[in-house]
């Protein structure tokens, strides 16, 4: 995605969603028990974390990430909370130029942290390099952080092992907030999102979905999702993957049938309600 496209209000493309954990081996084991096969990707030496990736056929991925030191540069509150999974700690969109996107959002009075250089060495010795920046105050994780690659993207995101599987990509990142209207207006203003559709879920509360976008905003009134907002402030609460649910149930343990915006939704058992599937 190019920065000019973002300025024109085109669809932000989800690059990946970090899933925080207290221990990388523990979260990888949980995902493997749920029928997925994450691949170890190496350490982030500057951030004090390590990761494994679950790459999806659409080129996006879930980044399973855990600390390697006591003072990691990012998501420390999620690592401390994790037992062993802390859920999605942020979400990331790809941009042609981090510097240009930072300037664009600064012009919309958005606080910016970066640009910063990032790197990791893959187990095969390949050095992966990129630039990124975090948007918004440090105590909230509603706006995405942005990334652009210095090395070829395929260094950072290898081919998916899930081609031909019932799961095809990220349907929605679900962002929990204590003020739905303000958050909706923020996305409409910053990304020129269309007016949302609304729905309701007993656990996630009021739901707002922007047509043609990969984002659902929710305002829970009680329960674990509301407690998550109390703990972290506005932040991602779950990720829903696009899937053929009838086929997926033969490969992944699915529970808790419901419907959002006319699409069947099922949660993946064993992942604490942080990962689900939405019907294609």
TrEMBL record:
Pfam families: Glyoxalase_3. SUPFAM superfamilies: Glyoxalase/Bleomycin resistance protein/Dihydroxybiphenyl dioxygenase. It comes from the Archaea. InterPro entries: Glyas_Bleomycin-R_OHBP_Dase, Glyoxalase-like_dom, VOC_core. Residues 13-148 form the VOC domain. This is VOC family protein.
């Amino acid at each position: 995605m190019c920065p000019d496209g973002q300025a024109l209000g085109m669809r932000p493309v989800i690059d990946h969603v970090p899933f925080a954990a207290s221990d990388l081996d523990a979260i990888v084991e949980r995902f493997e028990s749920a029928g997925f096969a994450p691949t170890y990707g190496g350490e982030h030496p500057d951030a004090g974390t390590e990761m494994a990736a679950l790459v999806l056929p659409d080129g996006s991925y879930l980044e399973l990430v855990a600390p390697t030191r006591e003072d990691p540069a990012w998501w420390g509150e999620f690592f401390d909370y994790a037992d062993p999974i802390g859920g999605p700690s942020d979400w990331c969109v790809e941009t042609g130029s981090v510097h240009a996107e930072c300037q664009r959002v600064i012009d919309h009075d958005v606080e910016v942290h970066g640009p910063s250089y990032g790197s990791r060495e893959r187990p095969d010795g390949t050095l992966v390099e990129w630039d990124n920046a975090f948007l918004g105050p440090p105590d909230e994780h509603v706006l995405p952080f942005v990334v652009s690659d210095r090395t070829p993207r395929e260094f950072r995101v290898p081919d998916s092992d899930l081609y031909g599987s019932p799961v095809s990509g990220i349907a929605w990142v679900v962002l929990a907030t204590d003020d739905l209207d303000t958050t909706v207006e923020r996305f409409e203003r910053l990304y020129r999102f269309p007016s949302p559709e609304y729905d309701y879920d007993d656990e996630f509360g009021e739901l707002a979905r922007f047509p043609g976008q990969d984002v659902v905003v929710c305002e829970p009134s009680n329960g674990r999702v509301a407690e998550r907002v109390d703990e972290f402030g506005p932040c991602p609460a779950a990720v829903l993957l696009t899937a053929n649910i009838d086929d997926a149930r033969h490969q992944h343990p699915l529970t808790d049938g419901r419907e959002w915006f006319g699409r069947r939704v099922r949660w993946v058992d064993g992942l604490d309600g942080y990962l689900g599937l939405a019907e294609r």
